[in-house]
Every structure is written in C-alpha cells, then in structure tokens.
Design a protein that fits this description.
The complex is a heterodimer of chains A (about 190) and B (about 350). Chain A has about 190 residues and is mainly beta. Chain A has helices at about 95-100, 145-150; strands at about 5, 15, 20-30, 40-45, 50-55, 60-65, 70-80, 80-85, 90-95, 110-120, 120-125, 130-140, 150-155, 160-165, 175, 180-185. The N and C termini of chain A lie far apart (about 50 Å). The radius of gyration of chain B is 21 Å and the shape is globular. The chains are: A mainly beta (about 190), B alpha+beta (about 350).
Chain lengths: ~190, ~350
Amino acid sequence: MSTVNGGNVRKGMFVLHHNEPHQVISHEFVSPGKGSAFTRVKLRNVLTSKMMDFTYKTTEQVELAEVETRELQYIYQEGNNFVFMNPRTYDQVEVSGEVMGSDRNFLKEEMTCHVQFYNDQPIGIFLPKKVTLEVTEAEEAVAGDRVTAPKKQAKLETGATIAVPIFVKTGDKVVIDTSTGEYVSRNN
Amino acid sequence: MSSHQFNFPVLKQRAVIVQAIRDFFRRSGFWEAETPQLVPLPSMEPYLEVFETQLLDQNRQPTRAFLISSPEYAMKQMLAAGSGNIFQITKSFRNAEGVSPRHNPEFSILEWYRVGADYLQIMDDCEQLLKSIAKTIHPDQQPILEYQGEIYNLTEPWERITVSQAFKKYAQIDQKILLTTPKLLAASKERGYQVNEQTTWEEVYNQIFLNEIEPNLGKTKPTIIYEYPVSQAALSKKKKSDPRFAERFEFYINGLELGNAFSELTDWQEQLNRLKEDQQEKAKTGRTLFDIDYNFINALKSGLPECAGIAVGVDRLVMLFTDQPSIQETLAFPATHLWPELIK
C-alpha cells in the first residue's frame, strides 16, 4: 500500500479515508496560532459522491487509493452519462456526469481521454491537455470595444461558451487548454 | 500579465470597511501607529516561515532584512515607551503557507492594544467593532452579517465558550483527559486518528480541534473561544485562578478564525525563555533562522504596561462583509493572479 505524507496531500489525489476511496477536491495549509502544521482537505467519496472536510497532521501517513488509468475513446452521451469505448477490446464504460464535471464542456466524439478506475469503477477523467474545437457562434466585435473588453464570448461546437480574442470568427477552430478552460490560440 | 478583471464593487466596499475600522478605533480613544514592514529581525513565531531579503549599503554590502509576519514587536516597543492605546492596519507576510481561499502570502492585519486592560475587554472591542462595520454598511438595519446564504447576528453578547467546554461539548473529551498526554493520545486513537510513538499532545489537540470543534464555532452568531491550555499561548499571561490555562481567545464566524487575542505577557525573562524555545523549534523544523530581537526584550525589561491585544485578518473580515467565497476575491491583485502557476 503506498502512502503520502499528510503535508504532501494535494488536490486531485485519490486517498483512502476510513477505507473508502476519496478524491481530494481542494487542499489548504493550516497552522493554528501556536501549533505544528496541518493540511485541511475537501474530500469527495468517489463511491457515494458525499463531500466531507478533514484535517491531516502534516506528519501522518495517508494511504493512497490504488487507481488504474485506461486510455478510452468517447463515443456518445446517454442521459447524464458519458459512454466511452476501449478502442482495442470494444468494451464500453459509462462515466457519470458527476465524475465528468466541467470537463464535459470540451468533450468531443472520438476524443481519447484518460479515465481513472478504482475497483473497475470510473472515478476520474483527464481530457487531452489541449483540444481543438470549432466556434459555432461568435459575437461581432464592435470597434471601440478594445479598450474595455479585449475579449468577447464565443460558443463552441460542444455548447460551451468561452472568452476569445475579438478577431476570432464563427467557423474558426480554436485551441483550448482543458486544465484552465481558457483559449490558447486559433488553429484554422 | 493577462487581461485582469477588477471587481470594483468589492474593492470599493473594501475601502469602506477599512475606513470604518479606522473610524471605530479613533472614536474609541486609539491612535494609529505606523511601524515598518521591512525589519532587521521579524517575530519569532516557530511555525511560520518568513520572507527574507537583503538590504544593501552604498558599497552594495548586504545585510539581512525581513518582511514582518506581524507588527507586534514594534507596537509593544511603543507601548512600553508610553504610547497609550494604539492600533494599526498594515501589510504582513507569511511564506510557505500556499495560496488558498483563506491564505494569501501578503495580507492585511489589524492589531490593537489596550493599556490597563485584559483579554475580556478585547472581547468587548471585537463585538463593538463588527457591529460598527455592519452599521456603516447598512445604517438602517440591525447589525447582521449575510454570508453565503446564512445570517449571523452580530449583536452582543456573542457566544462565549472555553476550550475545555468546547472539547466536552463537541468531542466528549473532558478536561482531565484533555490535559493528560497519554489519555488524550488514547482518546484520539479511539476516535480514528492516526497516533504513533512520535505523535505529540499538541498535534492531537489541534487535530481534534480542527476536525471536530472549529466547524461548530460561529454558527448563527460569532463565537469567542477562550482560555487555551497554557502551551497554546506563546505571548499570553496565565490565568491567575488556574495557571494550566492562558488568557487567550479567538473569535470565529462560520468556522473561520478571524482574530487571536491575549492578555499580553509582560515578564521579559519568561518572554526571553519562550523566544529561545521557539528558536530551537525553528532550527528543528528547518525553517529560516535569525537572532532574538533584543530591542523587543529590552522594551519589556523597561516595563510593558499591563495590556491586552489582538491580531485580526482584515482580508477575512472583508470577505465576510462583501459575501465573497475567498479572500482572493477581496484583493485587487491576489496571489492567484500574480502567480497563477501556484494554484495549478
């Protein structure tokens, strides 16, 4: 069983808390008036989605949940679930909307993603670091906007709306950084 | 720097709150001291890491220099020299604490010291100060705070509970267990916390406090939690009637600590001993080391009047009164914007 020091627990990690796997949603340093340091975390139970707060001593050993990562291809959405396929075995896997989170904004059919599993259950997902998506609707930029609003809103083929530079037009392809959800460049 | 959205309504409200704090203290017979942020020796707080820089002379010969983690030592030197009641709002700096909804490496701190007073009068000051801020923002309303959908009544008296009572009430641990190391370690293990031969009383005390007590403090009105075990109060006086506890309090709203107060330690010898212990602790934990500030000790030697004081996080107060989820939202240039890579 691998462990991590309480002081090194970080957002995104999967830890075992009371023997159940939890994803660390946020972490924060805490040092009470006079006292050694602690790490306060928000945990999401990946089996029940229940959220909880916990504070670790920085010196304690925190058990990590053993998580396996598989490369899967997104095929379609079914209700609140997202269906992925293993391109070699053609096995299908459903990832819940809860696990997908805001990543759904940039998810496109046939995109290859890294899906994390605990005991064969999908508990986390990583999209490619950068994705290219088509702009389906971009506001007309008005002259004079440049001073107050160097960016404007644009709608992407996935339905998400993001801020883009004013030169971006409907039909352009734009590169998005999926970790921040921000526009990177135009790629026509 | 990428284009940056300033939240001017919040920033303007911040200015109103800071002005309300200054007005409150002027009306209450305090004057605002101004002490340096760049100093040759910072406070010896054993678990805080400092920002160190260099001061160069005309020949570019370097001398060590630090940013303050609090203005306390300088203000106490003024008190010892006869300043009378003083307050200050200044920037302070703490390193290696990360950036989070409750922490920014540079933050605004409010400190005030009342001469001839003890911590009980500082409790009253806190009640009046928050009420006064609320009244400035909403002159025709009852003094309430609306934060993230909850309402907190700021009218005095606030809830007051001792640390011992809180351990009993929220963790079913009574005072005898709380103050006995092996008993508290055993109780902690029984509650499911990790305990081994290296675990200290201080660690389990704080872990239980943070997990089981703190979330219950300041639920519908602010809570003042007071009388800390004496080891948890480096700069405070012991309680005369029970020297196992110190005259320290903190106040909370919605589980968030807003201020930390003491009846100030005036015994220079005791203070010097504690600073030496704290210096040892810094060495043990690999933090930046520096000398004891003898200007501070000498000021205590010359006679610090009986007084009580408190440090309050101004950014946290602004966050509450502007109903923002994070202190970062109350700053024009939060560290999350200046160093976006820090939050990845």
